[in-house]
Amino acid sequence: MTSTQKNWTKSSWRDHVALQQPQWPDQGEVDRVLADLSQLPPLVFAGEIRSLKELLAKAVTGEAFLLQGGDCSEDFSQITAPKIRETLKVLLQMSIILTYAGGKPVIKVGRIAGQFAKPRSSDTETINGIEIPSYRGDMVNRPEPTLEARTPNPKYMLKGYNMSAATLNLLRAFTRGGFASLNRVHAWNQEFVVQSPMGRSYERLAKHIQQAIKFMEIIGIPADNPQLREAQVFTSHEALLLGYEEALTRQDSLTGGWYDCSAHLLWIGERTRQLDGAHLEFFRGVLNPIAVKIGPDYDLDNIKKLIDTLNPDNEAGRLTLITRLGMKKIEKILPPLLREAKREGYKIVWSCDPMHANTYTAESGHKTRNFNDILSEITCFFETHWAEGTVPGGLHFEMTGENVTECTGGARNIMDEELHRNYLTTCDPRLNAEQSLEVAFQIAEMIRS
Ligand code: PEP
Ligand code: CO
What we know:
CATH superfamily of the largest domain: Aldolase class I
CATH architecture of the largest domain: Alpha-Beta Barrel
Structural class: alpha/beta
Number of strands: 14
CATH topology of the largest domain: TIM Barrel
Strand order of the largest sheet: 1-2-5-8-9-10-11-14
Radius of gyration: 21 Å
Order of helices and strands: HHEHEEEHHHHHEHEEEHEHEHEEEHEH
Bound molecules: phosphoenolpyruvate, cobalt (II) ion
């Protein structure tokens, strides 16, 4: 698909029902903000978006692997250099572990630089007997449980744009300016992880990589080339606020195609993928790679129609389906989906989100996920693909470079009672740096054998 789809404009979604949109108190103010946003420079370029799509085409056939991860919901107050650096470090570490084990390039995509809008199961919540709007992400309102904080404010969309620009700027500097160089693979280990078993496993791997680089240099292959010196990290977020996405959608001067330049990859969430809904209408017309989340109650016919709508030309790299089925159900409900897609010859990147269907509430009231449940969904994902003769193409994580206690289990065996120690997320629980490395090492074991 290289040309604009039939009867599509970047505003045609407005004739469809858009779920999960905030109740903005003043539509005039929203329109003014969106008009301002539409005059601002794009955050990413069409050429970069096309490169990502080409890489994803390789994940369809198993020549590359997609690793997507980051916060459930980015927090404006946490957009700082150390925080961005720590997230990048874990993403690079996980990617190197998987590259080394899997013997194929890993496509690194952050849930970063724009992951500011959240779908919620309920529009409101009642706190101390008062009904207030639910928190919908920093681009909409604030998490504090007061009516004032929770009232949607369109100015946060402008702030979200600026925060995304600042984050992207630093990411580009880190990935191009030497920080992500494979020569520095040792330096990505977090201080609080170095002494742990995971930290030590990582150190051993880093040593192997450095030896390989040294060997190359000895035999005369210069290590100072962009493949070693630079990393490519792409950005992604759930494309929820369609006004914002429309305002950042631009026509590429080179090809005439329309690209949503708010991020390289956008995904449509489980709650907003209705066939006749506004989200599908908007995304069928932009040329970015698109991902769609698929939960356990999916309807096969509906998914086939969704695939035909978003990828009518069956272009490899255009569509990623992220299954999030839960460790109890995946074994039963993933095979029929894979079989039908295989029968139809659909070119799809199959990714696994082992987080969202494995959430439970601990006795302390914290929303959490258990490390073993996460690993068990991942294991079943790989085994099912291998059994069906389809390609497990990627993984999708909620994770952070920080030493948080939000998911239970893992090498340090975080217990329900310990969650309160450093529970920082404003939305869903994330794997901490150590748990992220551990999950990567476990997957490495599995794909190596
Ligand atoms: C998410 O990725 O944070 C999310 C809300 O996912 P899903 O749409 O799969 O529930
Ligand atoms: Co989430």
